[in-house]
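ESCALATION

Customer reports they have been waiting on this structure for their group meeting. Please prioritize. Original submission:
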Amino acid sequence: MKRILIIFLALILAACGVAPAEPTEPPAAALPEASQTPVVVVITATNAPADEPTAEPLPTYTPLPTYTVPPPPTEAPAQQPAATEAVAAAPTQAPADSGIINLDDTLGKGVFTSMTVTDDQVTLRCTPREITFTITASIADTRDALFYYRVVDFKRLYPGEWTNAGKMDKLGSGVYQIVFSGEDVHPNLRLDEGWLDFQFVALNKGGSAIDRTQKFENVVKYYIDCPEQ
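Update from on-call: job pushed to the front of the queue and completed.
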């Protein structure tokens, strides 16, 4: 029995000692030898990217307009006083031999005296076409004088607007004068066969009104054409 076991073990060991057949693998392909000539690969872009940003145009600027500042007025005062509404009829004195009409000094209210006018009428297209007003300041602070006027129909039913005709000329020693023509009446205020009312205003050094005379009415007539004889 012991022999049988030994023989059996020997057979088993013999069977285990046979090496299994190794699988054959195909020989690996020989690698190609590196070429000595360099290969240049050229890549050509066929299409630009669809989302490539485009350069935005630069904004355009319009130059600012230039303005010319007008020079400040030199003749008009800082604030021109308006004519007052106090009305006083101005009777005229009889013309002197020189043709000068002397105005009543009481209507000057102590602001101006020696007030005269060269004629009792003025026209636009006939004669006389201009008349001259002359006054003398009674207040020492007076530095300028303004002349206001308006045109009213003979029945005094349609009074025009009081208008500033500007500063009177300085003659020295407190004397002021203005030459007023038929054309000086504003076109919107011209009224044929009417009265030319007027008033004088005294100004101080700063251009403010010191005081003014009464309004002179029914003294000078205004005509567009020649008055009927």
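Sent to customer with the following note: The radius of gyration is 59 Å.
Escalation resolved.
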